[in-house]
Amino acid sequence: MKTSKNRLEKERLTIKIMINMYCKKLHGNKRNLCQSCSDLFSYAEIRLKYCTFGENKPTCANCPIHCYKPEMRGKIREIMRYTGPRMIYTHPIIGFRHLFNKFRKVADYEK
Hints:
- The chain is an all-alpha fold.
- Helix 1 (7-26) packs across helix 3 (70-90) and helix 3 (70-90) packs across helix 4 (92-102).
- The chain contains 4 helices and no strands.
- The N and C termini lie far apart (31 Å).
- The chain has one domain.
């Protein structure tokens, strides 16, 4: 029996797919991530693990606390700009869920 994933697991899967799509297309890596993309994914996993909001985490663009270092934040933005529109075609459920979460107000996340 399949269990439902929590919010942070879904975020982790979404960012993994985005980084994989980006690396595959722009860095030419078919199976494994390049070192730069692998480092970015590891960094993103750590940030998710220690997110202040936990299960009430907003999308990073809507978050009042920017926990990514400026360099990493720039890389993640670049990846999201590239993969966001493409995810609707390659991973429609994940893409639409991410898109809809982006429009939720930050107040919806506060307890």
